[in-house]
Design brief:
- The structure holds two protein chains of two kinds.
- Chain A is α+β, with helices and mostly antiparallel strands.
- Chain A has a three-stranded antiparallel sheet.
- In chain A, strand 2 and strand 3 form a beta hairpin.
- Chain A is globular, with a radius of gyration of 16 Å.
- By secondary structure, chain B is an alpha+beta fold.
- Chain B folds into four domains: 58 residues, no CATH class; 210 residues, no CATH class; 310 residues, no CATH class; 213 residues, no CATH class.
- In chain B, strands 1, 2, 3, 4, 5, 6, 7, 8, 9 and 10 form a ten-stranded mixed sheet that branches. A six-stranded mixed barrel of chain B has the order 13-14-19-16-18-17.
- In chain B, strand 2 and strand 3 form a beta hairpin.
- Chain B is elongated, with a radius of gyration of 38 Å.
Amino acid sequence: MATRDEKDRIALLQGTLDLLILRTLLFGPQHGQGIARAIQSQSRDELLIDHGSLYPALQRLESQEWITAEWGTSDNNRKARFYKLTKAGRKQLAHETSQWERLSAAIGRVLAGAEVEN
Amino acid sequence: MFWRKRKDSDFTAEISAHLELEIERLRAEGLSREEAEAAARREFGNVTRVQERFHESKRWMLLEHLRRDVAHALRVFGRNPGFTLVAVISLALGIGVNALVFSVVNAIVLRPLPVDQPGQLAFVENSQFSAGHSFPNYRQIRDRNQVFSGTLGYRVVQIELESNSSAAVRTWGYLATGNYFDVLGIKPFLGRVFHAEDDLYAGSSPYAVLSYGAWQARFGGDHEIVGKTIHINRKPYTVIGVAPRDFHGTEVFYWPEVWVPMMMQAQIEPGNAWLEEPASFNTWVIGRLKPDISIEQATANLNTIAAELVRQNPVVNEGIRFHLTRPGLVGDAIGGPARSFSFGILLLAALVLLTACANLASLLAARAADRQREIAIRLSIGATRARVVRQLLTETLVLSALGGVAGYGLATFLSSILSRWRAPMDFPVQFDVSPDWRVFCFAAAISAVAGILFGLAPSRHAARTDANAALKGESQGMQGKRLALRDVLVVVQVALCFVLVSACLLSLRGLQRSLTMHLGFEPQGVTVAEFDLGLAGYSEQRGRDFQRRTLEALAQLPGVQSAAYSNSVPLSIDQSHSSIYPEGQPNLKNSDVHMAVTYEVSPNYFATMGIRLLAGRDFDWHDNINSPRVAVVNMAFARQVFRTTNAVGKRFRHGPGGAWQQVIGIVETGKYENPTEVEKPALFQSIVQQYNTTTTMIVRSSLPEQQMADKIRQTIAALDPELPLFGTGPLSQMLGFAFLPLHAAVIALSAFGLLAVVLAITGIHGLVSYGVARRVREIGIRVAIGANPRQVIQLVLAKTFMLLGLGALIGLGLALAAGRILETVVFSSSRDPVVMASVFATMIVLGLISSWAPTRRALRIEPTIALRHE
């Protein structure tokens, strides 16, 4: 297999999958498999996307009306369900991105401080 | 929202699209079709699980579960029709009884009078003389109180009412003060009602307001009725209006056909003008409380008036104190007993329901033991405990809903019978118990509570099910404590059942006896007709003439063997008493004065009624106003008053200083007030010497009684076509009132007996079933090591029959005690061997029926299967 061994990959933190999906859709409509592929390739295969939890997540986002979906045709002429970011979704993305940045910066500072003391 | 409408199939399509895209990508990387498929699936994980998560994310999941649970419940019931039938019937009985009792309580106690703001109305009760007030006192209460915005007075009266369809009828009306309708806030259906200014001077307001029912029944709903003249007690009254349909007066039990202004009292009650009489406490009073006045304030204010009334007229008003109570039931006179009786019955009914629930709970517990494997399997393949409990609760709620619907239907049916029922007596006792929204809500609420009550125990049991142990076939016993409660319950039920069954059989036995009972007269072949010459406006002289002429006309009819008349006949509702002071017993204390049932009868009365004359002579027409006062007494009178069997020639009087009356004959002792009484003294006076306007014509003939009744009607109509007859028909039919308690007892006790039997059967059945279900493995082992069927039966039933025996023993004690109370109503003794033998037989049959099915199950246990517990 071309993909890296699964043990090396980082499991996603709870709630971060939503953020990544929204971010991926910023570049335009995409279907489920495409979203999973895009996250994996953009993270240079560091992140593991459990395909099984992808769809419930999409479902969740759709119910929040942050994304909408309709059936379309993929690049290789297959029928697929394409998801698109809504206006509310963009706002949510901006909100969650800043939240994430604050969180990771804070965690980073804590970890850096801990190293100093070490 | 769109997503909610998304179908499962659409989601499945999306996932397969995903898998296809993934397979293509992997094949592009050089994998074979099979390898790519496997890898894609591996990557995706459990497809079904994802689909399930999608499915469950839908908001209607709860409803979906409910639908499936209900469907499952119905399937389960369909597979166990016996169980379902037993459960639904006992629930229907429990809930039905409750709904019925509640609808009666609702009609009598809870439902307010259909008037404006009924909560403000208060019935002014006169402590000393019970409900009524003298009219002069009413005036003072009305004019001097500071707490009522209006104070009305009324009186229930018997009247002779003309109607346009047939001859006049004797019926009931209200005399009401002019402000009656205005204080209540009643608007007429037609025309107008009378007001205070219509009711100022005695005899000045011959107006009548008809009830809706009377307008329909007596006047054919004539829309031109207002302004027409009708006759009440043969005097003209102008109909001024018709009351609204749902207004039946201010007393739940006395529905008037007509309201007449109080000032017409002297005309309405001829010969008894009491309006200005300070000692006639005939007026019932209702006040409407002013806003912000409490009952306590009102009572205090009224009692300052009471003190003033006592001061003004200490002789008649001595000891008067007022208190307020809810209107509708003659104050506390009927209201008190009616309210406590109602709530007592309601409590009893609740007990019945509780028992039914407890029985079902044990039945369900037995089934839960049976279903442990099913539940264990459900738990082990991933159902949560909450889900299993919810499903079991749904089952019981479906059961209770079925029972509730059936019970409500039963209650509606029975209450419609009850609403139509008229007591066989000359009284406007009538009430509307038809169920309204209150009854419906009550039935729905108790059904839900019942479902939760009896569903809770098995559900809790299920929630504790250990899937592992249950699947291995280890039965999980319940703690001893709960079992003990169940046992006690069965004992109580059996005892109760025993009492009710014996009461029921006792009353049936009484009914059988009453058909052959000796009443002291021979009702067969006797026909009677009653009328009241006072209401018809006859003077005494004309009345005497009329009675005599009617008797002569009747005696000449073909087929008549004998005819007479009297003021009343034994065992009718109208019985009078008088006090007796015998000669030679001076200084009799008040408590020692003899009371005798008293009749005024014409000559030939005893022969006509079939009462045997034991000594002396009958009255004859020479015993008249000018001759010495004479009397015929019964043997009980002779023995108790004169302490001799030969009392002819003895004298007595009705009070110190009264005229002496001489006994000229002695007749056999009969039944006078009720068929179960012990010997009572009775006195017969000559109606020629002691005129009475109330007249019962009595005819003994060989003709069929109904035919005779028609002839009597024609004969009397020829003499006075206007005279209303009531109570015309065979004497045996007129005795209905006397046997009313017996018939009511038979019906009520049979109903309760049946209820108790059904409950006891469910209870015992549940107990035995549970016992068997819990001990399947044990029985299997015993059979395997050689137990024979007899021993199995013994194992299964030993405890049950011990409990049954205990219950029966307690029941026997209670039944003997209760029988003594019942004897006064049902004419048979609980020591009657036939009754007791039947009760025991019933209990044995009942025990056998209820343990039959589970015992058979126990006998069919195959050791090989039982040990595997399949």
